[in-house]
Write a structure and sequence with these properties.
mainly beta, Immunoglobulin-like, five-stranded mixed β-sheet, three-stranded antiparallel β-sheet, 10 strands
Length: 162
Amino acid sequence: MPISFPRSVGQLPDYYDHKPSMNRSYLFDGRKPLFPFGWGLSYTTFRFDHLRVDPAEIGTGGQATVTVDVTNTGSREGDEVAELYLHQRVASVTRPVMELKSFRRIGLKPGETKTVEFKLESRDLQMLNRVMHWVVEPAVFDIMVGPSSDQTASVSLLVVTK
């Protein structure tokens, strides 16, 4: 789904890239949407394994490669979309809990495994600082990959000043 679909009107507005302080929920209801961003149905099932980032530490102008193995665990051929999200743990301004940075659609036969690769560059890590300049701050970034915004595995990337 290209949007998050809330369980009730008490969850509005509902989107995956909210700020950390926006943990509003309706009485006796959580924040989890009925259908999260990226949710979809298929005639088969998929598994995401072995999420890794290389190198695990880069400079503010550096580049890293994120890879994940996607396996068709069902009995039919199907397509899956691998989505890559980022979160900067500590920043000079508030950052969303997750930001979609890239996605790849792949077709898999039953039992087939493919390695999906994402390139992260400094422009993917940029943010607008307090004086509205694009910067990459040294920090720890959580890199999350999965089939939707609520089903992700996470690995860390350290960005340092070099």
